[in-house]
């Protein structure tokens, strides 16, 4: 079956346009970013009853976006490392905690 150059170009442009509708997700970057937010919130005193569901919700979201292998092998290790690091630091200042809690609340309400 022969495909013309014009048809091939249209197919490539169509898939490029469709790809622009979905932002690129790099699991390890998302894990580190979300881990810093959750870790800082924990360090500022946000209870496990609030942070646990957020971690679970974002894990499910990552599973849906990139699949189990990338979630388990890339996203979760970075998430856990960032949370462990942030919670190992001394409690942030009041102004830093206010920013951290605002960022956590934004993550918490993310759909």
TrEMBL record:
This is Uncharacterized protein. It comes from Methylobacterium brachythecii. Keywords: Signal. Residues 1-19 form the signal peptide.
